[in-house]
Design goal:
mainly alpha, 277 residues, 11 helices, globular
Length: 277
């Protein structure tokens, strides 16, 4: 994602790849519509076809127009249409920021060119609202919006918005009612890290958020998952060792201390059982 921020892991699912292929075929049909003739090929490939077997009938909203692996580092040719941009700013103008404030922006960021001033506006609103989102129905809704904001930070290369996403993740990792999982936390932050095109800046951002997660309150399973992630990430990008060595050491020490505690409990239980005997 650092190299090609527009193509993120969510887009690798088979259903989305199918939509991408449909979108490519429909765009080809539009480009060469004069050569499709009047038969079945026109019924299948024409973007305006109403035939029940047309590719258009298989389309899901927006998905055929999401970027594929070939477009990950290529800016979209189209800017957000004015009427859609108006909807985005109307949602952002809501008196209290909520997950619904960002729905239009998040959904359209995969399809159209997102300007830096929109990312700056979102960043400004988050800071002004003290990173508080109102009327959040559930954790799933929250993580979807956080992930979407991270992707906006990535495609606009907005390091400021990436920092704001990091604050939001930290805040909601500590929220007793809407606590996001460790996997949703690091997944979102890896998206946000892609705001940094240079590998050194990327490593620093990744190192900082992993350190924050590593030194937070963790269950044993979360600590093991996070340490496993660090090990695999450093195989993929060895330069990460320069910024996440402390995180790995902290997690290793934490897991070792848990083993010592378990051993002590087992010893006490054994002594107590022998005393009863």
């Amino acid at each position: 994602m650092r190299i090609a921020p527009r193509w993120h892991p969510d887009l690798i699912h088979a259903d989305q790849l199918k939509q991408e292929f449909i979108g490519r075929l429909l765009r080809s049909g539009e480009m060469f519509k004069d050569k499709l003739g009047e038969g079945r090929l026109l019924e299948i490939l024409s973007p305006t076809s109403e035939h029940k077997h047309s590719l258009k009938a298989l389309c899901e909203p927006l998905k055929p127009y999401f970027p594929g692996p070939l477009e990950g580092n290529t800016p979209p040719s189209q800017h957000i249409p004015e009427e859609m941009l108006a909807v985005i700013y109307e949602q952002l103008a809501e008196p209290a920021l909520s997950t619904s404030s960002f729905i239009a922006a998040v959904n359209l960021a995969n399809v159209f060119m997102v300007e830096a001033d929109l990312a700056a506006k979102i960043s400004e609103l988050l800071q002004k609202g003290r990173y508080q989102l109102h009327n959040v129905d559930n954790t799933r809704e929250l993580t979807a919006v956080l992930s979407g904001l991270a992707k906006i930070a990535a495609v606009t290369r907005s390091s400021e918005l990436a920092k704001d996403v990091r604050v939001l993740v930290r805040r909601y990792r500590n929220d007793p009612n809407l606590q996001i999982s460790i996997s949703d936390a690091y997944r979102t932050l890896f998206f946000a890290a892609s705001a940094h095109a240079e590998v050194n800046d990327w490593c620093v951002f990744v190192g900082e958020f992993l350190e924050n997660l590593a030194f937070s309150t963790l269950a044993k399973d979360d600590a093991e998952e996070l340490r496993s992630l660090i090990q695999y990430m450093c195989i993929a990008e060895p330069e990460l060792w320069t910024t996440i060595g402390a995180s790995d050491a902290a997690l290793s020490a934490f897991l070792a201390s848990l083993l010592e505690v378990l051993h002590s409990v087992w010893t006490v239980c054994r002594v107590f059982r022998n005393g009863l005997s």
